[in-house]
Amino acid sequence: MEKLFGKFALEKKGILKKVKIVSTKVEKITDKHQTPWLSQWTLHTVEIPENEAQVIAEEISKSLDYSHNSSWYADYKNNTHHYIIFRDKIFYIDQKSKEQYDKAKRYGVSLGIPEYQVDFAPDDKIWER
Fold it and tell me: 8 with 72: CB under 8 angstroms?
């Protein structure tokens, strides 16, 4: 599986040693990020072996940083399925299912993530940063 590890902060960074980082992008924080305690977002594109995807998702779910009363998610996918990972909640989505994506989006928004940042469904307009 290969996909952007995006829009998240890790409380425990050890998980990054268990994945292959293909590339890294650093974004300067703007008001639209809604994370004023940070100076930048670091987004990693990673490669995860198919047979380790669920275990890695569980570890990420326990590693996301919620210390600033904020919510984050991580995601990765292959050609058919998409893992969307929140703290203590993992969605394993059939990429053809709008209903499954909508459920994950509603969950993310209920945690306080701005709607324009839960842009992981195939038909979503990608947040212009």
Answer: yes
DSSP-based three-state secondary structure for 123: coil
8 Å CB contact between 34 and 118: no
DSSP 16-47: GGGSEEEEEEEEE--GGG--TT-SEEEEEEEE
- List per-block mean pLDDT (blocks of 10 residues) for the chain, which spans 129 residues: 46 76 81 68 82 92 75 86 93 96 95 85 66
**Rounded distance, CA 48 to CA 70, Å?**
26
- What letter does residue 117 receive in the DSSP assignment? G
- H-helix or E-strand spanning residue 107: helix 98-110
SS3 category, 89: strand
Through-space distance between the first and last CA atoms of the chain, rounded to whole angstroms: 25
What is the spatial distance between Cα 119 and Cα 82, in angstroms, rounded to a whole number? 13
Enter the pTM of the model.
0.80
